[in-house]
Design a protein that fits this description.
This protein is 64% helix and 0% strand. The protein has a single domain, classed as Orthogonal Bundle (434 Repressor (Amino-terminal Domain)), CATH 1.10.260. It is globular. The chain is an all-alpha fold.
Length: 78
C-alpha cells in the first residue's frame, strides 16, 4: 500500500462507512454495538478522518461480524 497517513485515514473512514452500510447499521447502532453511548466516535472515523486505535479496529470488526483484515481491503473504496 503506497498511501500517506492522511490518505489512509480518508480511505479507512470510507471503508468503515461502506461496511457499516452493508451491514445495515446506522452510526448510532454501530456505536452501541461497540459499547459507546452515541454515534460521535463513528462519525469522527467516517467524516473527520479520526484515526482508530488498534483496539477500536478490533471492536469495529467484531461489531460488523468481519475479520479485521477486511477493514483494510480498500479495493472497493472510491
Amino acid at each position: 500500500m503506497n498511501t500517506n497517513a492522511g490518505e489512509f485515514r480518508v480511505k479507512m473512514g470510507k471503508r468503515i462507512k461502506q461496511l457499516r452500510q452493508n451491514a445495515g447499521y446506522t452510526q448510532q447502532e454501530l456505536a452501541v454495538k461497540m459499547g459507546f453511548k452515541d454515534k460521535q466516535i463513528i462519525h469522527r472515523y467516517e467524516v473527520d478522518g479520526a484515526n482508530p486505535t488498534a483496539y477500536s479496529l478490533m471492536q469495529l470488526a467484531k461489531a460488523l461480524g468481519i475479520g479485521i483484515e477486511e477493514l483494510f481491503d480498500f479495493s472497493s473504496v472510491q
